[in-house]
Amino acid sequence: MSKKILFPTDFSVASKNAFIYALQLADSINAEIVTIHVYEPPQAHFVNAVAYLHEIYDVTELATFENYRDEVPALRTVAEVNNLGHIKMSHVLIAGDTVSQIRKMAENDYFDIVIMGTKGGTSFRESVFGTVATKVMNEVKSLILVIPADCNYQAIKKILFLTQYKSVDTESFKKIVSFSKTVNAHLDCLRIISSHDNEAIDAREDWKQLADSETVNFHLIEGSDTEGLTLEFIKSNAINLVSMHVYHKNFFEKFFETSISKKLALHINIPLLAIHE
């Protein structure tokens, strides 16, 4: 089965920047890229709107199609500028709710990974990751690679998997091990425990058996400053991708409200890989 990457795009600058990651990954794993652009149907709010709805749809869809027709070649240009013009691409234009359509497409056709950029928003959380990206990571049961708006492309060579070394993380761990091997990257696993956590269980030896690989290192750091220690680890180990397990549907909604997400966003600018169960 050929490998495929799903790339949702709104043709923003951030999205085109993220497209470089999609192209580079496609090149390394010999995959094709399917882009999807979702536009929302018009909502009429005036009296007797039903009588004019057909015309409204026609005008909106024509404008959307013309914009889409103009923007798609720009993606090909991005590929050619980066010497990746040989990557096979196809493009989908569809009306509806963005997250729902991405989820439907990801579920109905097999994709190895979904890659998307973010363009920001009004709140801190939105400005860092974007509301659509947050919802996609929460709701689409695929590997989701999100590229922050100001992230400049770096080859993925050092991956950090944040974990508690618990059984609930083992399937996600196997997936990140497979991903790291696919992109030929070193993998570090990190758990930070409080010095007051006397009941913390060190399961690293069990996880080493799961890994069966010399390219995985397991770390356990004791300290109360979880955010600072994580940030220090990322910087000192030149990490260029952070990964974590999505525990529940609203996991990233809550994660982006925590201090660790804010510190990471303020001090580093690297991709985030969300892994579902």
TrEMBL record:
InterPro entries per the UniProt record, alphabetical: Rossmann-like_a/b/a_fold, Universal_stress_UspA, UspA
Residue span(s) of domain UspA: 1-148
Family per record: Belongs to the universal stress protein A family.
Entry protein name: Nucleotide-binding universal stress protein, UspA family
Species of origin: Flavobacterium micromati
